[in-house]
Amino acid sequence: MTTLPPLLALQDVTVVRGNSAERPALDRVSLRIGAGEHVCILGPNGCGKSTLIKTITRECYPVAREGSSISILGRERWNIFELRSLLGIVSPDLLASCTTDATGRDVVLSGFFSSTRIFPHHHPDPGHLARAEATLERLGIAHLAHRAVSQMSSGEAKRTLIARALVHDPQTLLFDEPSNALDIAAQFQLRDTMRELARTGLGILLVTHHVAEIIPEIERVVLLREGRILADGGKQEILTAEHLSSLFGVPVRLVQHDGYFHLY
Q1: How many whole angstroms separate alpha carbon 156 and alpha carbon 59?
Q2: Crossing angle of helices 126-138/154-166, nearest 10°?
């Protein structure tokens, strides 16, 4: 049986964004996430969560330093378009880029080209078109194929982005703050979709500051604060009132119901 390389292997990694005199976005982080794992990176705004996603997708690069290393899917060097063809990404940045007259089908097709819409130099073939239609159907949004993203609700646009992330059969799905701007009904629908995808065996990396977003299928939680890992382990061990009070800097109460955790 072939063992797949880990999604991510960081060793003593520091990433600086903006003014180099500021606190690093990631500060000497060591983290390994296996292939097919379901993991949540949890932390307050500004803790480095999105920087971690951008480091995986090669939008950010770590400081070169002796003893520091980064490997993604078993390799240290990548053509970024080849890498992104193996990852399915759902993020606020992508959603902002899609608020145009691009249709749902165009956005889904753009997943084959690591873009956010179909540009004149892109040439989807019949296979691409068939897979896009099938993926829209799979997510129950075939009716959005010809609707402009700018005319969709936030929930419809988010499901279209998930279809885009799935269309090229990625090894892992990366969800960056997925429920932002969604109403309650759309949040519940999103969680159901994430659960269905997790059960197919796809790796899921969820990055969020909402404890309630952590679906029951996620087994491991990493707490990130001020660019550093505060704790890393099994969900039941890590999601405690003590840990989360330290993470968010305020006293909290924690309850569990139907496999979900909620803060008060």
Answers
A1: 26
A2: 130
| Cα(170)–Cα(217) distance, integer angstroms | 19
Which of 166, 161, 167 lies closest to 202, judged by CA? 166
| Distance of alpha carbon 187 from alpha carbon 184, whole angstroms | 5
Name the β-bridge partners of 228.
Answer: 225
CA dist 129 and 215 (Å) reads 31
Report the DSSP pairing between strands 203-208 and 220-225: unpaired
Does residue 24 sit in helix, strand or coil? coil
At 8-45, the pLDDT tens digits run 999 999 999 876 556 899 999 999 999 999 999 999 99
Report the chain's C-alpha Rg in angstroms.
Answer: 18
CA-closest candidate to residue 47, choices 64, 29, 65, 66: 29
What pLDDT shows up at residue 82?
87
126 vs 123: CA distance, rounded Å: 10
Amino acid at 197: L
Q: Which domains does the chain have, with CATH numbers?
A: 35-56+80-263 (3.40.50.300)
Q: Say what the pLDDT of residue 19 is.
A: 66
Q: How far apart are CA 138 and CA 151, in angstroms?
A: 21
Of 41, 87, 23, the closest CA to residue 229 belongs to 41
Look up the pTM and report it.
0.91
pLDDT in tens, 115-162: 877 777 888 889 999 999 999 999 999 999 999 988 998 889 889 999
Angstrom distance (rounded) from CA 46 to CA 17: 12
Summarised one tens digit per residue, pLDDT across range 238-250 is 999 999 999 999 9
Measure the CA–CA gap between 122 and 109, rounded to whole angstroms.
10
